[in-house]
Amino acid sequence: MAFTMHSHSGQFCPGHAKDQLEDIIKHAISLGFTTMGLTEHMPRTGLDDLYPEELDNPEQSLAELGPRHEAYLVEAQRLQAAYASEIHLLIGFEGEWLRPSYGPLIKSLASHPCIDYFMGSLHHVNAIPIDFDSAYYQKAVESAGGTEERLYEKYYDEQFEMLEALKPRVVGHFDLCRLLSAEPGRDVREWKGVWERIVRNLQFVAEYGGWLECNSSALRKGLVEPYPCRAIAEEWLSRGGKFTLSDDSHGIAQVATNYKRALEYLESLGVSTLMTLERIPPTGVAHENKATLVTKEVPVSTVKRCFE
């Protein structure tokens, strides 16, 4: 029983991902996936919030984001029904916390009847992308005070703002800030202010019952460990925290990429069970009520057998 709680398609994330959503789902089924969370990026609302890849025609790029999200919801519901006998499709989105003013929009998007959950994610510091390329990462460093230590502190402070405002069920790539770091494998416990913020955030998520994803995309991007790194994962587990599993795929080629390594990593941490969701379709008038969500525990060993 393989699954992912975090995925994207080129159909609804053009320029950033590849392939049609239906083709990605078919490929996941062929790999033995029984549950798949669809989490296309949410629309952003300002020209200043566009990614570099969207700046050739910024006004048009911005105007397309809202309608594209609505088209995604329609197609996701169609696919959810069409493949119900083969795979359990959850419909969600990935949040974009650029600043606190995005909180109400995220809540509004999450209230749509077909939305089962959303990823609570940060891709920015001071509204500057930190995972796009090294040039933007350095701009973010400078904006945070000129050192990576200050950037990490700012990242976790903004993450805490997002956590307090939204309490997402799944926290996306908890330590994304290390992706383009000059030393991504550093022991963050050596930075007192950073580590205090990490512990604060982990404790908050544990208290409201959220999950961290073990996100294997860090491995395909050249990092030695998935998100989150071992020091953070151990601290999370010491607080009774639960993990779910994600490939954060951006196309067919990345579905389940490095899952075997990610699962071995989880086993080395002593993790034996992963969390996912099961949706019970709503009763009453169609498209007016949300599904009921039930948490499911999946043995790591069961997932691992799909990739041996």
From TrEMBL:
GO terms for biological process: L-histidine biosynthetic process. Gene3D superfamilies: Metal-dependent hydrolases. Pfam families: PHP. Keywords: Amino-acid biosynthesis, Histidine biosynthesis, Hydrolase. It comes from the Eukaryota. Pathway: Amino-acid biosynthesis; L-histidine biosynthesis; L-histidine from 5-phospho-alpha-D-ribose 1-diphosphate: step 8/9. InterPro entries: Histidinol_P_phosphatase_HisJ, PHP_dom, Pol/histidinol_Pase-like. It catalyses: L-histidinol phosphate + H2O = L-histidinol + phosphate. SUPFAM superfamilies: PHP domain-like. Residues 5-217 form the PHP domain. One of its GO terms (molecular function) is histidinol-phosphatase activity. Its EC number is 3.1.3.15. It is an enzyme of class 3 (hydrolase). GO terms for cellular component: cytoplasm. Belongs to the PHP hydrolase family. HisK subfamily. This is Histidinol-phosphatase.
